[in-house]
Structure formats: structure tokens, C-alpha cells
Amino acid sequence: MVINRRIANLMQSEIRNMSIECDKVKGINLSQGICDLPLSNVLSEGVNLALEKGINQYTRYDGIDEIRRAIANKVKHFNGIDADPAKNITVTCGSTGALYSACMALFSPGDEVILFEPFYGYHEYTLLATELVPVYVRLTPPSWEYSIEELEKAVTSRTKAIILNTPANPCGKVFSREELEELGDFCIKHDLIILTDEIYEYITYDDHNHISPATIEKIKDRVVTISGYSKTFSITGWRIGYSIAKEEYANLIGMVSDLVYVCAPAPLQFAVAKAIDTLGDDFYKNLRNEFIDKREIICSVLSDVGLTPYVPQGAYYVLADISKLEGKNSKEKCMWLLEKSGVASVPGESFYNKKGGENIARFCFAKDYAVLKLAAERLRKLFK
Fold it and tell me: Roughly what angle, to the nearest 10 degrees, separates helices 94-106 and 121-129?
């Protein structure tokens, strides 16, 4: 049997693999980024209202009017982005759908895209599935800094774009304004499009604040902003994402999204629009404060048991040093930890292209307090 070359080199995400292994032992899943926060009544009531109104059919390829207007108001208020709901916004099947559509729409097979390591696996897989070529530039811990010299070495005549993830999965880096200004100059110099995944935009810590690259005037027309509500509203299964781009790009992205997905689920679009319009700043403040508490719980236990954490600046994951665990690589070490404690994590090597991540693991702390505290108890018991 001949396997399509687009998928020949793809494999199931290690995040999903570890979730499957966790289910086998009925463990505590700190691997997959499934947020356990309860669903807001605004969202459940919005779905019911949509069904009562009979909002069950195909929508416009770029989303219903209500959600595009809501997103435009939201990004103006929170991000500082001016977006015309009729020209710049495309509602997609999750932020992953937005990235896939953008890659298909804006680039040709063989084009190169710079990807920072450690990377989110679906970013890499999306590039490979669309026959683009990832070019890897490594971030340096503990603050996960990039080198402009390494970026310059990575550029070729085939380089067309760079992917930014801020706040970042898995390392929790939040790119500063100074960094974004420098990266903007780099992209102007080499005429690169900037694909920016901002799905964790509301979840930042300490003195780190989320800055959307599209708010930097000199690069706003070359930025495709990608985000969604999976994480913010704890609706990872609803698949409501969006992209914002200049009209020329938005039309192309919308054409691909229409071809591949037709539209995001109509009643869920309606419900998310109602939630965006209804939930005020206090909702997002409380969300952030809850994750501050949970970050402290997971980072404290990891420190206490000798799995030193790289304390994240944003998002709801923490990378930790697992060099003391048994095993020849991060997969074996994570499997050992799962077997001995029942706590699942993600092997660090899954976030790197070749060598890298052998002694780190990712833990997700977007869990119910009781679940997170039980995981902490199990880890303390194992290493006491």
C-alpha cells in the first residue's frame, strides 16, 4: 500500500499517547491540555437558546455575524487590534483549523517556516501535513530566550514565515514587546509572514503581559493572529477558533477553511458570541488568579520532590527537569513516573525535532483543585 507522502512522516501526538497510557492505569492525566474548569452558565444557556432559535444550519464560511462582531469588539478591548468583522475575521474549527487554513492558503509546498523549539507538536504536524518545511530555532532555558544570530542562520531564500506562540505551549514563554519589536524588524528584513498563536492570551503571570504582534504598527499587515476559546472558556471540544488578518489574507484563509471544514458548529458559534459579549473583565481576572494558584501548587511539589520546574510566564503548563528519574530518555522516564505514581506527563523530546528534551517533561495544571492536589500527594509519596 502506498501512503500519501503528506502523512507518511506523521505520528500520533505523544500528548495523546500519554493520555491513552494514563487511561490504561486509571491515572491522573497531567499530560493533555484539557481544562477541567466548569462550563459557564452563559455558554450552556447560549447553546440552548441557539437550539430554540433553530440555529442548526451552515453559516457563512467565516462565521455568523454575532461572533465576528463579538470577536472584533473583544480584540479591540483586550488586544488593541482594529479588525473589521466583515473583512478581517475568519471563524474556524478551532485555532488548529485556523493555522491549517492559513498554511494552505498563504504558502506553497516546499516553503520554509521558522519554528521555535520547544514547539507545540500540532504546529509542526500542520506544517508537515501542508508540505511546508519546518526550520527549527532553539529557545534557551530558563527564560527561553531566542538568538537573533541563530534566526539569521536559519533564513534561506525559501523562508516565508515564522510561527510565534505567546504565551507558549509547552514552555510558558511570554514574548516581550522588545522581543516582538526585534522579531518584527527581522521579518521585515526577510519579508516574512508572522503566524501567531495566542490561544493562552488571558493566562499570564507575575509582571508578564500578553502583547499581540498585530498591535505593532510596522508589522501589523504581515501578521496572521490566531486564537480561540478552547482554553479561555474550557470548551476544548467545541472547536471555536478564529484568525485575524488583512483582507487579502483573510479571504484566502476563509476559502480554505470553507473547503476543509465548511463552517464551525453553528449553535456553538452563537453560544460563544453570547459569552464574549456577556462575560466581563472579572471573569478573565478570576481565571488568571485561579491559574496563579494552580501554578504554585504544581511548581511547589515539583521543587519539593527534586523535579525542578521552569516556572512558566504564561499558559497552563510547566516543564520540569526529570533527569533523576529512571530511563534512558524522556519517554522511558515519563512511563516510569506514570507506573510508580499514576501521574501522567508528556516526554520532553516530543517538543523537539532531534536531540533535545531528553531530561524534561511537561505537566498540565489546568485541573480541578482536588485532582491537582491528589497528583501532588502521589508525587510526594513516591519521592519521600
Answer: 40
Q: What is the dihedral of CA 98, 99, 102, 104, to 10 degrees?
A: -110
Give the β-pairing of 28-29 and 112-117.
unpaired
From residue 194, alpha-carbon distances to 74, 183, 185 in Å are: 21, 9, 12
Q: pTM to 2 decimals? A: 0.93
Residue intervals in the chain for CATH 3.90.1150.10: 5-32+282-383
- Residue 7's pLDDT band (boundaries 50, 70, 90)? low
Fold of domain 5-32+282-383? Aspartate Aminotransferase, domain 1 (3.90.1150)
The residues, ordered by sequence, that sit 6+ positions from 185 with a Cβ below 8 Å of its Cβ are 218
Burial of 154 (0-12, 13-18, 19+ CB in 10 A): middle
The answer, yes or no, to whether the previous bond of 85 is cis (omega within 30 of 0) is no
pLDDT category of residue 384 using cuts at 50, 70 and 90: confident
| Residue 76, CB-side half-sphere exposure with 13 Å CA sphere | 13
Question: Given its phi and psi angles, is residue 245 left (phi above 0), alpha (psi -120 to 50 degrees) or beta?
Answer: beta
E-assigned strands of 13-143?
28-29, 89-93, 112-117, 133-138
Please name the fold of domain 41-278.
Answer: Aspartate Aminotransferase; domain 2 (3.40.640)
* Mean pLDDT, rounded, for 184-213: 98
How far is 307 from 316, CA to CA, in rounded Å? 17
